[in-house]
Amino acid sequence: MSLTHWLVVIVIALLLFGRGKISDLMGDLAKGIKSFKKGMAEDDEAHIPLRTEEYDVTPPPAPLIEHEPVKPAAPKKAAAAKKAPAKRAKAKS
Fold it and tell me: Is 1 within a domain?
């Protein structure tokens, strides 16, 4: 938009709202921004602990898991019998 467009928009806004109404709106906007900043500052201060002694920072102990001991598997007799002759045949050759 060119400069003349902006001038027309400003003149129409002044005619619709009047000079006093626009300054009131800007003042209310400024008050709202200040109130928001103040609220954010108070919110940050509320979360800062005053003393570290009030809080226990040690983590809870890990749960103890008990396991049963693993029993070794018994060797399979059929598999051992099949492998034994093959080993003997290789040893004779």
Answer: yes
